[in-house]
Amino acid sequence: MSAPVSLRARVEQYLAERRKLGFALRSMEMRLFSFTRYVAETNHHGPLSVDLMASWARQATAGSGDRSTWARRLNLLRPFTSWLRQFEPDTEVPDEAVFGQVPGRMTPHVYREEEVLQLIAAARMIGPDGGLRPLVMETLFGLIACTGLRISEALGLLDIDVDLQAGALTIRQSKFGKSRLVPLHPSAVEALARYRTLRKRFLPSTPELPFFVSSRGRLLGEPIGDRQVHRIFEDLRRQLGWVDRGSHGTPRIHDLRHAFAVRRLVLWHKQGVDVDQRMLALSTYLGHVKVSSTYWYLTGVPELMGLLGQRFERFANAWEPSDE
User: Strand 168-171 and strand 180-183: pairing?
Assistant: First the structure.
């Protein structure tokens, strides 16, 4: 009789099979290994049960006591446990009866222009005075706001990926394994050139140098960590006292990406262009696989709804019957 295969080995096997089909599964990997550690810590033996999975889901550090957060965590286990049943037939598969349905689209906090400027100004003021960290944070938040990059894409940039002569970024192997070119506005090129020049005071530039670097002692020149960026953002958010206009509880860095898409749509409506024709270009720019993902990003802020109302009014008036 062969020895039983460990849960961790099954998770690794599942991820390997899915990745052969082209899925990145970074978030899935993190959650599945978290579940694996929880199972080990509880000394659970035998088939995986729904009660065990629900207990793990309740361990969420964010949104403690939030059933929607628990439902999302539990939902991540469904495809894996369904797959696992071919090896462990007694494995239970959780359903919506545990925490209810996974909530649909949650409204993002669409930043106003003045809020973006406040964020950049606040990042410029963080310590140490005259150091590299405020320069990195100011430029990082500004780049995400003006290009709609994912934070992982911005942090993954190398110096060679930032071509300021061509005015474009090369985003390599982003979400869904796609690479793309992101053209830059001249003002963004100017800001990135200034950052690169000032960064040379602290360390020399090389093609393989991370564009956004850590400024901490021995870590100087290493890629800056995602956790550190989020921690600094949270400190600045609390300092600025923003009131959340979305449904995530607090404004997030990722909401800068949503705000970029909405601002672009507002501009196109003001210009009177055919928005449907431009959506494919926006989808490509944002790195979406399907244009439907781009429509998902668009939120009805008051300014946009006002422009849409004016446009519909002109359309309706054009079809009013003549009195003659």
Answer: antiparallel
Angstrom distance (rounded) from CA 168 to CA 165: 8
109 flagged as catalytic: no
Phi, psi of 171 (to 5 degrees): -100, 115
Of 31, 257, 263, 264, which one is the catalytic site residue? Answer: 257
Q: In a structure prediction context, what are the per-residue pLDDT tens digits for the chain, which is 324 residues long?
A: 345 678 999 999 999 998 888 777 777 888 899 999 999 999 998 899 999 998 998 886 544 456 777 888 888 888 999 999 999 999 999 887 777 666 666 778 889 999 999 999 999 999 888 889 999 999 999 999 999 999 999 999 999 999 999 999 999 877 666 789 999 999 999 999 999 999 999 998 899 999 999 987 778 889 898 889 999 999 999 999 998 888 777 899 999 998 998 888 888 877 878 877 888 888 888 888 777 777 666 655 555 555 455 555 555 555 555 554
Catalytic residue among 175, 196, 269, 278: 175
Distance of alpha carbon 279 from alpha carbon 148, whole angstroms = 14
* 185 annotated active-site: no
> How many angstroms separate the CA atoms of 168 and 149, rounded?
13
Respond yes or no: is residue 257 known to be catalytic. Answer: yes
175 is catalytic: yes
Residue 150 a catalytic site member: yes
Q: Is 295 one of the annotated active-site residues of the chain?
A: no
DSSP 8-state code for residue 158: B
Q: Where are the domains of the chain?
A: 7-84, 113-240, 255-318
- The answer to whether 256 and 145 are in contact (CB under 8 A) is yes
Superfamily in which the 113-240 domain is placed by CATH: Intergrase catalytic core (1.10.443.10)
